[in-house]
Amino acid sequence: MTNSSTSNTRQAWILVVGLGVVMAISFGISFNAFSIFTLPIVDAFGASLEQAARIATVFMITMTLTMPAAGWLLDHAPPRPVMTLGAVVTALGYVLAAHSDSLTLFTAAIGLAGVGVGASTYVPAFTLVTRWMSPRRQGLAFGVLLAVTAIGGIFFPILLTRMIAAFGLRDTLQVCAAMVFFICLPLLLWLVRLPPPGLHAAEQAAADAGTQGGIGKALCMPRYWLWVGMFLLITLSSLSILMGLVPYLVSVGYTADAAALIYGTLAAAAIVGSLLFGALSTRWGAGRTLVLGVILASLGMACLLVAPHPSFGVLALVLFVLIGGTTFNLVNQFSPTLLMELIGQRNFGSLLGIGNLISGLGAAMGPTLFGYLVDSTRSYVLPLSLSAAMMALALLPLIMLLRSPRLPRAALVVPS
Q: Residues 285-291: contacts with CB within 8 Å, 24+ apart?
């Protein structure tokens, strides 16, 4: 291996870890925090659970609307301006939220933060990693990226719960903004750049041969829409559970601190899952590994229904954390690999962004629907059952997807 190759490989892995830190913070104060923020928002604005959950929905909508544009820009322009501007907008959104005097302004400010997160995290990060990493290493790279991201989910729920108790919701939001501005922004300015010209050119050219028709051809492929449907069902189910978990645990008798601790252990389990299932995928492939993950995730969600039981509740929660936590990030880890196997690398950022837009807009309704069902039925049984059922239903498009024609493996991995 030449010195140049060694340097590029080292730079690629530094980029993966750095982007993981950015995503750990950005998602730690949003996805991993909205369930923590729900009850303080209810108290601060006199809102219902449905109104508080709607804030997460707005965030999801604005974030997913931004993703296709971010993906398209990364297919046609340098990534650094896109991602750094996204970090600035995220910080601004949280500052405005901290100073909002109404629920409407607060929701709009969090929506603005969603635009920033969409421009600086998932689609841009995964697209950039595919540029730096050869196809044979992308599965491992995605696993490491998500494992680092999940570390934020361990600490932020506990940290934010204690900060809100000590300083209040508004000061906590200003600290969130400071973390994005003083940590994420410098990391993006330092790390984000395109790889040297010609890096992995042979692999990219071979993969692109499968989609010479560009985006239009890919959008006409049934297998692409099976991928989107699978992504939608899994994301809708997972996000609904994630946003409603802490209020549910509090409702069945757990303290806010205990609920936040359980919430945080999900992220610890996700780290183990990303690495464990990543290793398994080297033997089984991304698709078959994801099938196993979906089956386990649906069973883990069903365990939550037993949480109020006086004798088996604790055991059920342990099983939920072990099963649900280890499988939580698998769709994000393996869906990019599945997409590349199905349509190749040409316009990958745009197609990943479009898929995330469609699935994200649908999934964004999950927290609001979850909260509505809780308010209407005065019970968590129906929304929890529906979430588990949607996860199991995702097996249908996933299995159909695996049976559809794919690019030959040789087109994706060039022998060394």
A: 286/139, 286/334, 286/337, 286/338, 286/341, 287/334, 287/338, 287/341, 287/398, 287/401, 287/402, 288/402, 289/330, 289/334, 290/330, 290/331, 290/334, 290/335, 290/338, 290/398, 291/395, 291/398, 291/399, 291/402
pLDDT tens readout for residues 41-97: 999 999 888 888 889 889 988 998 898 888 888 877 889 999 999 999 999 999 999
Exposure pattern of 231-257 as b/e (b: 16+ CB <10 Å)?
A: bbbbbbbbbbbbbbbbbbbbbeebebe
Helical ranges in 46-121 per DSSP H: 49-76, 79-98, 103-120
Q: How many CB atoms lie within 10 A of CB 175?
A: 15
For residues 187 and 65, what is the distance between their CA atoms, to the nearest angstrom? Answer: 24
CB atoms within 10 A of CB 30: 25
Say how far apart CA 172 and CA 347 lie, in whole Å: 39
Question: CA-CA distances (angstroms) from residue 384 to 156, 246, 262, 305, 327?
Answer: 24, 13, 17, 7, 17
Please name the residues in contact with 81: beta carbons below 8 A apart, sequence gap of 6 or more: none
Residue with tokens 């590349």: 340
Burial of 409 from C-beta contacts in 10 A (0-12 / 13-18 / 19+): exposed
pTM of the model: 0.74
Q: Which two tokens stand for residue 107?
A: 């929701």
Burial class of residue 160 (count of CB atoms within 10 Å of its CB; 0-12, 13-18, 19+): buried
378 conformational bin, left if phi > 0, alpha if psi -120 to 50, beta if neither: left
Over the chain, what is the mean pLDDT?
Answer: 85
